[in-house]
Amino acid sequence: MTKAVPTSSAAVPTTSTQQTRSIVIIGALFFIFGFVTWLNSVLIPYLRIACELNNFEAYLVAFAFYISYLVMAIPSAWVLKATGFKNGMSVGLLVMAVGALIFIPAALTRTYGLFLFGLFVQGTGLAVLQTAANPYITILGPRESAAKRISVMGICNKIAGALAPVALGAVALKDADALVARLGTMSVAAKTAELDALATRVITPYLLMTAVLVLLAVLIYFSSLPEIDTDHEDETVAAANTNKTSVLQFPHLLLGALAMFVYVGVEVIAGDTIISYGNAQGIELETAKFFTTFTMGAMIVGYLVGVVAIPKFISQEKALQVFAVAGVAFALGALFTSGITSVLFIALLGLANSLIFPAIWPLAIEGLGRFTKIGSSFLIMAIAGGAVLPPLYGSLADAYSPQQAYWLVIPCYLFILYYGLAGHKVRR
Predict the structure, then answer these.
(1) Is residue 1 part of a domain?
(2) CA 75 → CA 114, 272, 352, distances in Å?
(3) Which of 14, 147, 156, 371 could cysteine-pair with 30, CB 3.0–4.6 Å?
(4) In this structure, is residue 2 part of a structural domain?
């Protein structure tokens, strides 16, 4: 029987029913990841209006959310060491609930810094959840089909990502074009009152989110989700890791973390900038607010390809290479066209991005054995690419144009291509 990333085999669900039940539970968590994460695509143009921000300031939404992965990933590993995977997931959900609750005073006072703090706390909870859930689903079966399982999780994540901007956009960006036109003709007092009313639109959605997150935390705590012991190595991996004293001695992991950093950056750029970019291309916000859903839909298509094709028709490594090349091609398409065509090329970056994460993760943590938890934390820290690259995009958009700023993603895809071709083999 083919082994997955080495772990105690007794800890892994032993029947197909147990495995299916576990995958369903983790799939629900990935749905939550996607819903909370891709609300940012609406929050960026919404808070830009409500808090009167420029491009760079607006993309601090992504910075505040994703920088928490860098700051909190190692503490997340400590939490999981103390609580185990299952209880750690409940803790992560409760922390996310606190972050959602912070949006209430932020909205009532229209304080941008408080919105950013709420996003940071939400990201902290997600750091705990992802540190647990990603290695869990990777280990939950054969290593060579890990990308297929992560693709199933990606479908759950991106269905939520497609629904989230539509749901919040219907509330937060309702009649936004008319509002922006009115604001230019108002007195200071009237403008302040209008913006205060706009800010309060998010109170009800985030109260509902808080309740759902608390309920899920309780359900996960009392669920039948089994614990997995990643500290136990099988004999082959234990022998290979005999002289290893630090996770830094695994160069394929370190290169994988860098690939993850640039990947998350381009994924967030593709999903979070497309609404504002569509508006910059002359498309009204009333229409553009749906564009993130197009990006998520393209990702879902890619994940479905992964479920069908990996590893039967294409290996994880080859999928990584092909989709990295597609990322370069679609980015160039966006740069050298205009209007809705250019916007659709940005949406197609979702297709290119879809199988990159599922392929990087198992390649990067392969053979880590007792270093799996801390290695997973490195990959979670790398999600901070979503904090660094979108504000850099915003700065370039202010300095040049929202379209020319997309040159930023080209070297990112080229490095991902390198990792798929050679970087993941460095350990050999």
Answers:
(1) no
(2) 23, 27, 32
(3) 156
(4) no
Q: How far is CA 185 from CA 22, 50, 179, 181, 396, in A?
A: 56, 16, 10, 8, 30
Rounded CA-CA distance 51/48 in Å is: 6
Q: Which amino acid is present at 377?
A: S
CATH code: domain of residue 291: 1.20.1250.20
Mean pLDDT by 10 residues, the chain (428 residues): 36 62 83 87 90 89 90 80 83 94 95 95 89 73 70 81 87 85 86 91 93 91 71 54 72 92 94 91 88 89 84 83 96 96 96 88 81 79 90 93 96 96 79
- Do the domain assignments include residue 79? yes
Burial 228-266 (b: 16+ CB within 10 A, else e): bbbebbeeebeeebeeeeebeebebbbbbbbbbbbbbbb
- Output phi, psi for 111, to 5 deg: -105, 110
Which helix (H) or strand (E) covers residue 136, if one does?
Answer: helix 112-139
Residue 4 domain flag? no
